[in-house]
Design goal:
Largest sheet: 6 strands, antiparallel
Helix content: 25-40%
Structural class: alpha+beta
Shape: globular
Order of helices and strands: EHEHHEEEEH
Radius of gyration: 14 Å
């Protein structure tokens, strides 16, 4: 599995991050796991084709006590196994990492 990870976060930082993600209604139903939606314009051609049958397409963000990990796999919430479940392409990876870093900055979390 490929990940983008940030560690050495304080417990207060991860608490603040978890609360903000929950407020955005991104919780997965599992403690510490959040689903970040993939912007429609960043979907691959096959993901666009499968948007209705398999979507929404998301990337997992795991928040632990002192770290977070962004999974670099695009998952289909509507179906577990499909050709549209793919590793994020470079443009999407860059976009999601930039988004996450800006989100942390907005929460005043050093990273």
């Amino acid at each position: 599995m490929r990940w983008y990870a940030i560690d050495e976060l304080s417990t207060e930082d991860t608490r603040k991050l978890t609360a903000a993600l929950a407020d955005m209604e991104l919780a997965s139903g599992m403690d510490g796991l959040f689903w970040l939606p993939v912007p429609p314009e960043k979907l691959s051609p096959v993901q666009r084709e499968h948007k209705e049958s398999c979507g929404p397409h998301v990337m997992g963000l795991e928040v632990e006590e002192h770290a977070l990990r962004l999974e670099l796999l695009v998952r289909a919430r509507g179906r577990m196994h499909c050709d549209c479940v793919l590793q994020a392409h470079s443009g999407l990876r860059s976009h999601m990492i930039d988004w996450l870093e800006q989100f942390l900055t907005g929460l005043d979390i050093a990273h």
